[in-house]
Each structure stands twice: as structure tokens, then as C-alpha cells.
Design a protein that fits this description.
Helix content: over 70%
Strand content: under 5%
Structural class: mainly alpha
Shape: globular
Oligomer: single chain
Number of strands: 0
Number of helices: 9
Order of helices and strands: HHHHHHHHH
């Protein structure tokens, strides 16, 4: 197997998924006041909502974290039984769940969770699990889709090792971690600008689905990822 080609493939997937992750998290934070995949933030919200007595937000946050956990478990089950599909199968499942979430109407104001929007948030938490799991299965570098704390740590550590050892092999990892960070920021920025600049519609299709149209961008990115051929192993 061409190891360099595999490394480039994994880096490309990582960068695109970080962009998708940025869009998902800003969408969920803006629309639901909870995160799609940043579950450290959700756990903080879980505790603070409980202490404040905001039972509705506590339950919404609890269910999205639970959906993510269940999704990770099912992604492991799927991967164990369908090893031949690799990332492609997990991405297809993720796309199907994302589509289901996108057709759920937004019937309340941004940041306010109606029962329907709670369903959409849980679906996105579930979808995020398959997306994250398709990401972390890479073996050459411990890339992380939305955990920027880990990626910044690895980026700076890579710089330190490059300076101290003068080994050029660290250059690739430094560059990829930087691009992951930049594209996550880009995803957050594009998503936030779209949601902020979208006019407030009083009725009709755009009132219910205007925000959801943003989800077409990550859906398109996933379709692009499906078209990229995964390098085959020739270890045998």
C-alpha cells in the first residue's frame, strides 16, 4: 500500500470533517442552545441546567448526550460487522440521519426548544456519533473532528518536537492539525454568519426551514467525501 497516499487521504477526510463539525456545533448552539458534538460543553450545561432548575433544557441536553453515546455504541457494532465499508458506510448512515433532522421544522425561536426541535437536536447528536466515529478510526495520526483542545495540544506539541529534534517528519502533522483548526473555525464562521444574516420570516417555508438549509452544506461535503476513493491495503 502507498502509505503516503493513505496519509493524504486521512488528512483530507479529517480537514473536511472538521469543517462539517464546526457547522454542526454552531447550528445546534444557535438553534437549540446545546452542542452537537462538543459534549464537554453539554455536560457543563447538563449540570448548570439542573442546578438552575431548568428541567426542559436539562432533559434536552441529557437526551442529546445519550443519543451521542448510543450512536457511538451502534457505530462500533456496525463497524465490527461491516469492516469492508470502512468510512463510507458510516458516512452514509450519518447522511441519512442528517437528512431526517433537516426535515424537522423549526417551530420556535432560536435557542428555544419545542418538542419538534428537541427531536431534531437528538437526531443531530445521534448523527454526530457516526460522523465522529468515522473520523477517529484513522490510525496514523490521532486526529479529532471537533475537539479543538486536543488538536491545539497536538499542533503545539508537534512544533515543539520539530524545533527540538529538527526532524522534518513532524511537518506534515503540524500542517494538518493547523488546517483542521482553521477549517473548524471556517465552518463555525460560515454557519454563524448564515444564521445571523438570515431574515426573520413570519410564515411559510422559510420560517420553518430557513435555518435547516444550512445543513445542506455539510450534506454536500459528505457526498464529496463519498466520491473520494479510499486507498486499499496491500499488506497481504
Amino acid at each position: 500500500m502507498d502509505k503516503k497516499r493513505l496519509l493524504y487521504y486521512e488528512a483530507f477526510i479529517a480537514i473536511v470533517l472538521s469543517f462539517i463539525g464546526g457547522i454542526f456545533d454552531v447550528y445546534c448552539l444557535f438553534n437549540f442552545n446545546i452542542y452537537a458534538m462538543l459534549h464537554t460543553g453539554n455536560v457543563i450545561k447538563l449540570v448548570t441546567n439542573l442546578i438552575d432548575g431548568d428541567i426542559a433544557m436539562f432533559l434536552a441536553t441529557f437526551f442529546i448526550v445519550l443519543a451521542f453515546a448510543v450512536g457511538i455504541f451502534l457505530a462500533n457494532v456496525y463497524e465490527h460487522h461491516r469492516k469492508d465499508t470502512g468510512n463510507k458506510g458510516l458516512l452514509i448512515i450519518s447522511m441519512a440521519i442528517l437528512f431526517c433532522a433537516a426535515v424537522v421544522p423549526n417551530d420556535s425561536a432560536p435557542g428555544v426548544l419545542s418538542p419538534l426541535k428537541m427531536v431534531a437536536s437528538v437526531l443531530l447528536g445521534f448523527e454526530g456519533a457516526f460522523l465522529v466515529h468515522s473520523f477517529i478510526r484513522f490510525g496514523n495520526y490521532p486526529f479529532s473532528a471537533t475537539t479543538m483542545t486536543a488538536d491545539i495540544n497536538r499542533f503545539v506539541t508537534g512544533i515543539y518536537k520539530r524545533i527540538t529534534t529538527k526532524d522534518k517528519k513532524h511537518n506534515f502533522g503540524i500542517l494538518v492539525y493547523l488546517l483542521i483548526f482553521v477549517f473548524f473555525i471556517l465552518g463555525v464562521g460560515i454557519g454563524y454568519v448564515y444564521l445571523r444574516l438570515l431574515p426573520t420570516f413570519e410564515e411559510g417555508f422559510m420560517k420553518l426551514y430557513g435555518y435547516n438549509l444550512l445543513l445542506l452544506l455539510p450534506l454536500f461535503c459528505m457526498i464529496v467525501l463519498l466520491t473520494v476513493p479510499e486507498p486499499k491495503s496491500d499488506e497481504s
